[in-house]
Amino acid sequence: MLKALLLTLLFEIAGAYLLKLRGKDLLLVALVNLITNPAVNLAVRILLQHLDPNTVRLIAYAVFEPLVILVETLFYHYYLSNGKGAFRTSLILNLLSVTGGILWNMIF
């Protein structure tokens, strides 16, 4: 769980920086992920006790990730310096971290 959180923070903060977020907005990206990432990872671990890994993976990508994007969009909408583009920001950062995590696991 810690590895997933650290990778998510790395990818999403770097992505946020590339999207020109700075200062407290970068901190917000980190704080939001400190909430959403452990919640998703805990849910995945619980599901893995009851379902096969492929089903859990499907649930994670089809259900949990869209929920994370929604939750993060709400945080970004209300708390980013410029809340406009909150959905786009959340979508880009989550696609980046999911893709980055998949590639990381394939390589390492």
Describe the SSE topology.
Blueprint: H1 2-18, H2 24-48, H3 53-79, H4 86-107
Helix pairs in contact: 1-2, 1-4, 2-3, 3-4
What features would you describe in this structure?
The chain has helices at 2-18, 24-48, 53-79, 86-107. The chain is mostly helical and 108 residues long. It has one domain (2-107). Helix 1 runs antiparallel to helix 2, helix 1 (2-18) crosses helix 4 and helix 3 runs antiparallel to helix 4. The chain starts with a helix and ends with a helix.
Structural domain tally? 1
Number of helices: 4
Major beta-sheet overview = none
Which residues sit in consecutive blocks of at least 5 with pLDDT less than 50? Answer: none
Mean pLDDT across all residues, rounded? 96
Fraction of residues in helices? over 70%
Proportion in β-strands: under 5%
Radius of gyration: 14 Å
Structural class: mainly alpha
What is the molecular shape?
globular
Could you give the count of β-strands? 0
Order of helical and strand elements:
HHHH
Q: Termini, distance in Å? A: 16 Å
Structure summarized in a few sentences:
With about 110 residues, the chain is mainly α. It has helices at about 1-20, 25-50, 55-80, 85-105.
Identify the notable features of this structure and list them briefly.
108 residues, globular
